Amino acid sequence: MKNDWNWWPGDSVFDFNGDGKLDFTERVIRDVQHMRMMGLLDDDDDDTDYSTDDDDDDWRDNCEAYDDEDEDDLDDDFSSAGSLNIPLTFSVEVVPGEHKSKDYPNARQKQAAGFWDTFGDDSAEGKRAAFIIGNAASIPAANYLTADGNFLYAQAIKDNFTIPCSLPDEDLEQEIEFWDIFRKLRCRDSALTLEVWDWCLQQFAPYAEYAVGVEYDLWFSVLSFMRSNAEDFLPQCVDYIAEHPAFLEALGKIYNSGNYIVYILIIEALKQHRAKIANALFDMEFEATKNNWKDINLTMQSLVDACYCFDEPMAVKYIKNHFLAKLKTLDDGMVLDEIPEWEEKLNKTIADLEQWG
User: Fold this and answer.
1) Is residue 199 over pLDDT 90?
2) What is the pLDDT of residues 38-74, one digit of tens each?
3) Does residue 27 sit in helix, strand or coil?
4) Do 219 and 258 contact (CB within 8 A), yes or no?
5) CA of 203: how far to CAs of 145, 195, 197, 307, in Å?
6) Where are the alpha helices (H) located in the chain, listed in sequence order?
């Protein structure tokens, strides 16, 4: 690669993934940096137009939308575009960054070093890279985090548990989603599944700020799977939560947005007369969604509709006297408008259960 005419002295600093070559994105960053050094680009001018009158450069603004199979063609276009035609007689020595120049034990830390040098200490990418490099030896969340913000759950589980199924190796990319790992484990060892789920919450939830989609990975996607494919697993989940209070504590660290599907666990907890768990789950949902009437309405409507599954009125009364009463404290007409209808349905369900009981 270094014999390629596109390779410039010091370009290894832009090889973020450490594969010995510059992909399209890395080359864009490299060329922009060189243009700045040569005074062809003003650092303070974010609106600089790199296009020429003869070139249609709209694709550059949307380059992420292109498939990998088009990358070679785009590379050719990029290297030949008049707007980035930097004279090859110009030789610029780029001093390797202070972080990238060091040796690291794995590709994730090496990739993080490249991000750190490129984006700087104050950027989100730089802070994530600093977290990875500074804590990988002692904090699993740092060791299994990629520079672009993905936790490698499969690799972490493989390295820390003896599991009864195969999971892919992960180095720089997440190869399998957490809910799919959950699915594979559940049908082989339900107790281990809950232990792994709890461990992942304990390890990764406190550091969710450095990653993307952690709430979806460890909560929403799992509940979605259970609602559609494993409702029989809900009693075991509630039992486990009752015996492991730290589970809910860790969950609270990632619960930042509405997840109405939590109603399936709330209903199961009430069926087991575990009001404390049901209330804790509803409170987390309430705090996360009270500023979004659509989310809170969907959660309450789901709870009201699910009351058909109860065979005695106590649980329905709890929903009315605690959850519905809490919604009445909101100063949001879009929620308050629905309360009379919910209350009417709950009262009817209570009356029916008392009559049949």
Assistant:
1) yes
2) 555 554 544 444 344 444 444 344 434 434 444 444 3
3) helix
4) no
5) 12, 12, 10, 35
6) 24-37, 58-61, 71-80, 107-119, 124-135, 140-143, 153-160, 178-186, 190-204, 214-215, 221-229, 234-243, 245-252, 263-271, 275-289, 293-305, 314-318, 325-327, 333-336, 339-356
C-alpha dist (Å) from residue 322 to 142, 262, 303, 319: 40, 16, 12, 6
> Using an 8 Å Cβ cutoff, are 332 and 294 in contact?
no
> What mean pLDDT comes out for the span 105-113?
90
- For range 7-13, the mean pLDDT: 58
Which has more confidence, 61 or 147?
147
The pLDDT of residue 37 = 54
Residues 315, 108: Cα–Cα separation, whole Å:
49
Instruction: Return the amino acid letter for 32.
Output: V
Structure tokens at 2: 């270094």
Q: Give dist(CA 196, CA 187) in Å, integer.
A: 14
Q: How far is residue 291's CA from residue 113's CA, in Å, rounded to a whole number?
A: 39
Distance of alpha carbon 59 from alpha carbon 73, whole angstroms: 12
Angle at 163 between CA 142 and CA 155, to 5 degrees: 25
Tell me how far the alpha carbon of residue 115 is from its chain's centroid: 19
Q: Is residue 196 within 8 Å of residue 185, measured between CB atoms?
A: yes
What single letter denotes the amino acid at residue 347? Answer: N
User: Of 268, 336, 271, 333, nearest to 300 (Cα)?
Assistant: 336
From first CA to last CA, the distance across the chain in angstroms is: 79
**Paired tokens of 127:** 């802070």
Question: Which sign does the torsion angle of CA 245, 246, 252, 254 carry?
Answer: negative
Question: What are the CA-CA distances from residue 246 to residues 198, 202, 301 (Å)?
Answer: 8, 8, 29
Dihedral, 335, 336, 341, 342 alpha carbons, nearest 10: 60
